[in-house]
Amino acid sequence: MRIRKLIFSLTIIAILWSCSSYVRFTSDNLDDIKTYGNLIYDGSKQIIEALEEELKTENKSNKFEGKLLNSSKKWLGTPYQYGGTSHSGIDCSGFVLNVYEDMGYELPRTSQQQYGYTTKISSGEKQIGDLVFFRRGSDIGHVGIYLGSNKMIHASTSRGVIIQDLNNEYLQRTFAGFGRVPR
User: How far apart are CA 129 and CA 34, in angstroms?
Assistant: First the structure.
């Protein structure tokens, strides 16, 4: 009887692990991002402000890109919570889901489902708002939103919602591709 309980418990753990979008997608070298008591990242805020200024000069601040930046920045500093979908805690796919929902789009819940839902595009075709996918083993295990200037915003497991450069060694090693949400 105890062996059955142990096997059952291990099976449940294995199933939950394989279905999760949990991966540690951060490093200690995050473009001098500083943590404050309320988990707002000064470096990330400066990046968003620079991108917003760039969109204003290109007259795009009221278009899709501007709406995406406006929706995304509301989440900066939100702590990571596996399965979370609110400002008290959010995971990577929940973050993407909420940002797009705020802009009037419906997306599937998990990073794997979001990967299947998007149209795959090459790195040369990427635009602000495209999704960036990463592998965990052979599966898609993480997702973020491309912001331009080789940066993405995502829910990091150790630092919450931050902006990170895609040149990060770990991100490059696990990179799976870009996907465009049907508009």
Answer: 25
